[in-house]
Design goal:
The structure holds two protein chains of two kinds. Chain A is an all-alpha fold. Chain A is built from 21 helices and two strands. Chain A has one domain. In chain A, strands 1-2 form a two-stranded antiparallel ribbon. In chain A, a hairpin with a 6-residue loop joins strand 1 and strand 2. The longest helix of chain A is centred in the first third of the chain and has 37 residues. The termini of chain A are far apart. The mean pLDDT of chain A is about 85. By secondary structure, chain B is an alpha/beta fold. Chain B is built from twelve helices and ten strands. In chain B, the strands form two sheets. In chain B, strands 2-1-3-10-4 form a five-stranded mixed sheet, with helices on both faces. A five-stranded mixed sheet of chain B has the order 7-6-8-5-9, with helices on both faces. Chain B is globular, with a radius of gyration of 20 Å. The N terminus of chain B is likely disordered. The chains are: A mainly alpha, B alpha/beta. At the A-B interface, helix 3, helix 6, strand 1, helix 14 and helix 19 of A face helix 2, strand 2, helix 3, strand 7 and helix 7 of B.
Chain lengths: ~500, ~325
């Protein structure tokens, strides 16, 4: 506590640090909200300038951008079905349907509060036991455990947003198939690129997400508009009530744990956290069929989890020098520009820096609540823009976003192709959320499965004998079995009726 | 094999020591050819911003800015083991306003036939600014083995189940160095590729793998913290910073070690006067205080890292021959 207070005093007593804190807060939110042009873009742009800052200010700036950037993409995900970043994609699953039902204020408000709460909890956990948690995470969770975790996540994906379990599974399998395009993670063998070099890097999930969500939605609403059945969403600024949150207290706490846990695993981070948080909300809900159709719990779970991953991702970075994702990898560059290396010695040699960063992340998460509240009262008014103006703007932003990820025109084509495919799949009862889940989890899962198999000399016995692996795989099996039983019962009930 | 390698040993050795000081002869100023460049230059980096390429690109960009005030903007194009960035670069206008950062993967990809772009013929190297050696690391608190000899004994006893983390797939610099080492000592080892540094280093720190194949600049933090220690250096002689770590010669390895090298290139069709200007610009940028300090921090001062255009071509061509021969021996190419 003493160290935290000292860090906080150092931060607020220096006008330059305060200005950098505010710039990071707004910059992260702004860049996080624009698809494709993410907080990573901001991080890359400002990197050369951080050489002129003190090491403390530079690292603090990146940590604040990380907190606000992860939240920023939630607003566009909820209002326009355009997730600003992959970690906000599950937020759109239920956030956008809520907007269509005239509950945009409630969805944005929930995202604001839960992002702030998840991030703050994560910051507190991070401050309490960084070194201990980091050591536990990397010694207990290797590639076999991460693969099992992914299987556990995929097991529930079939029940998200599809008309039947079978269509849910086909959606997930399509996502897994798309994830195999490009070089294989073991031997670098080319797969499904048809001689086209740009496909060697695989189908990037950001253009795919933009196509599946934003572009297909524009097509659907355009069709409705042409048919004269389009109804503009009602603008509603109601913040969620305390009772709403109290009802979801277990979902919030569960997502804090899941988000924090995913965040501390090197190379996993906020995206898996958001999807796992959402999946577990579906798994534990008494009404899983409501998810994907405007369930507040979906927004709450996703946004709590992705922000809970931010503080957690700083743990392996600071304690071990292991970056959890691209932005934390950039932070290593910032450390090095100041002749420092993150790792155990940072706590000894630069304790002030560490606690200023911790304090800044704590305050950034608190600030998200107040700024987000203001956003709720202002940004939601964008929904008043008539659809015939809004639709081209959405397509334009999505196109820029798809191109900006890697600067490849191919990604723009991928986005529009995904939009057309999703336009037909959505009306046939398939789940675009399931496809995205398959795509993102498939890439992580395959890589870790390949590494796990090599570690075990391609022997399944030691693989499944690892206790955490065994527990996760059994839980995944039970989930699958439970879904099948539920589906069969539903079919019997329908035929009896 | 040995018959082939012996002259190359000399050639690569010459490449490492013979051309190192050339840039000091460059003039301090140079007139811009026809006003070039009139706007910022783009630099395509075929890997992500957090890795070694992203870092060396930023170091060089700062050096160019410090020396000349010219702004270079990085444009990261990761994917396909560097092939996406390389192909993207070749599709850009050959006007000198776009330069390329690339590593030895461009050379090995051409040698194995994955790429049809020869880095010393289809491209003109402006400067090679980092050449580094590799080492094998273990945890400092490891008890099953504590040095190279005990590691070899452990690996043999594991009968192919010993594990080592590295990056890249079959045919990469890491794999070839490791395969030849394992062949020499008669053990088999599972080489597990981790794309990202964090999971790779975490795998060793967390005890998921037995050892790590890496370059010292990338794990400097772990060395300084005492978490990792090197047990063999892939150089013929011990570098000064690792005087207590056995070299290849010490442990009896007699092949030519493949090096990791990173440099900057332009398309061969860029107008000659612009190429000359860019060569001067990047070679002078290498010698700025900021870039030299950056290289020192990454252990890139232990062996001469600088190559001008001719030195770079020699290094690429020599390395290419080694790769081709090794791939032939491995049956990967005819």
């Amino acid at each position: 506590m003493e160290q935290f207070l000292a860090g906080a005093v150092t931060l607020v007593s220096n006008p330059t640090s305060i200005m950098i804190f505010i710039a990071g807060l707004f910059g992260g939110m702004l860049f996080g909200a624009i698809p494709g042009i993410s907080m990573l873009t901001l991080g890359a742009i400002i990197l050369p300038f951080t050489g002129n800052m003190t090491a403390t200010d530079a690292i603090m700036l990146y940590s604040v951008i990380y907190c606000s950037g992860v939240f920023g993409g939630a607003i566009t995900a909820i209002l326009f079905n355009i997730p600003g970043a992959p970690e906000n994609a599950p937020t759109a699953f239920d956030g956008y349907p809520m907007t269509k039902q005239g509950m945009a204020g409630k969805a944005v408000g929930a995202a604001v509060l839960c992002s702030s709460f998840g991030g703050t909890c994560s910051a507190i956990l991070m401050m309490s036991a960084t070194a201990l948690i980091a050591d536990w995470a990397i010694s207990s969770f290797g590639p076999p455990e991460i693969f099992a975790l992914v299987v556990f996540g995929i097991a529930v994906a079939s029940s998200v947003g599809a008309a039947t379990v079978w269509k849910g599974w086909l959606s997930v399998l399509l996502g897994l198939l798309i994830a195999t395009v490009g070089l294989d993670p073991v031997a670098g063998i080319e797969r499904y690129n048809f001689g086209f070099v740009y496909l060697l890097a695989g189908i990037h999930f950001i253009p795919t997400i933009l196509g599946f969500f934003a572009v297909s939605e524009v097509f659907i609403q355009t069709e409705k508009s042409a048919a004269g059945t389009y109804q503009a969403p009602k603008v509603n600024l109601d913040f969620p009530s305390f009772i709403d949150f109290w009802r979801l207290k277990f979902a919030v706490l569960r997502s804090v744990v899941i988000g924090f846990f995913c965040g501390i695993l090197p190379g996993i981070g906020a995206t898996l956290a958001a999807f796992m948080g959402y999946n577990e909300a579906v798994r534990w809900s008494k009404h899983p069929e409501k998810f994907g159709k405007g369930e507040l719990e979906g927004v709450v779970s996703s946004e709590t989890a992705n922000n809970a991953a931010t503080g957690a991702a700083m743990i392996p970075l600071l304690a071990l020098g292991l970056p959890g994702g691209a932005l934390t990898a950039m932070m290593i560059g910032v450390f090095q520009m100041h002749d420092m290396e993150p790792g155990p010695l940072v706590f000894v040699n630069s304790s002030e820096l560490v606690w200023v960063v911790f304090a800044a992340m704590f305050f950034a998460n608190i600030s998200i609540f107040f700024l987000g509240w203001l956003q709720t009262k202002t940004v939601v008014h964008l929904l008043r823009i008539p659809f015939h103006f809004l639709a081209p703007a959405i397509l334009l932003i999505a196109t820029v976003g798809a191109y900006a990820v890697r600067g490849l025109v191919m990604d723009v084509f991928v986005m529009f192709a995904a939009g057309i495919v999703a336009f037909y799949l959505r009306r046939s009862g398939y789940s675009v959320a399931g496809i995205i889940l398959g795509l993102i989890l498939g890439k992580i899962g395959e890589q870790n499965f390949a590494q796990a198999m090599q570690m075990m000399s391609y022997d399944m016995v030691p693989f499944v004998s690892r206790p955490i692996v065994a527990v996760l795989l059994i839980a995944a099996g039970l989930t699958l079995f439970g879904n099948l039983v539920k589906e069969v019962r539903q079919i019997k009930r329908s035929s009896a009726a | 094999m040995k018959k082939f390698v012996a002259p190359l040993l000399v050639a690569v050795g010459f490449g490492i020591t013979g051309v190192a000081g050339a840039a000091t002869d460059l003039p301090d100023t140079m007139e811009k050819p026809g006003g070039f460049p009139e706007r910022p230059i783009s630099m395509i980096v075929p890997y992500g911003p957090g890795g070694g390429s992203g870092q060396v690109a930023r170091g060089m960009i700062q050096g160019v800015l410090d020396h000349s005030g010219i702004v270079v903007n990085p444009d990261y194009k990761p994917g396909g083991s560097g092939m996406v960035g390389l192909k993207t670069y070749m599709a850009a206008p050959a006007d000198g306003y776009t330069v390329l950062e690339h590593i030895d993967d461009a050379t090995s990809a051409f040698a194995i036939g994955k790429s049809d772009i020869h880095p010393a013929e289809d491209l003109i190297p402006l400067v090679i600014s980092q050449i580094t050696f590799s080492q094998i690391y273990i945890r400092s608190d490891e008890t099953r083995f504590t040095d190279w000899d005990s590691f070899v004994a452990y690996a043999k006893a594991q009968d192919g189940k010993a594990t080592i983390a590295n990056v890249s797939g079959e045919g990469s610099m890491e794999r070839i160095n490791m395969n030849r080492t394992a062949d020499h000592f008669g053990f088999k080892v599972q080489q597990i590729s981790f794309d990202k540094g964090g999971p790779r280093y975490g795998a060793l720190k967390g005890g998921q793998v037995d050892a790590l194949f890496e370059q010292p600049g990338d794990v400097r933090g772990f060395l300084e913290s005492g978490d990792f220690k090197p047990i063999v250096t892939f150089l013929k002689e011990r570098p000064s910073a690792f005087a207590d770590v056995p070299s290849m010669t010490d442990v009896g390895l007699d092949f030519v070690p493949l090096m990791r090298f990173r440099g900057f290139y332009v398309h061969k069709d860029v107008p000659a006067d612009r190429v000359e200007y860019l060569k001067w610009l990047f070679q002078k940028a290498y010698h700025t205080d900021s870039y030299l300090a950056f290289n020192k921090q990454k252990f890139m001062d232990l062996i001469p890292s600088f190559r001008d255009t001719e030195g770079a071509k020699m290094l690429i061509n020599d390395t290419m021959e080694i790769y081709k021969q090794v791939y032939k021996d491995m049956g990967l190419v005819n």
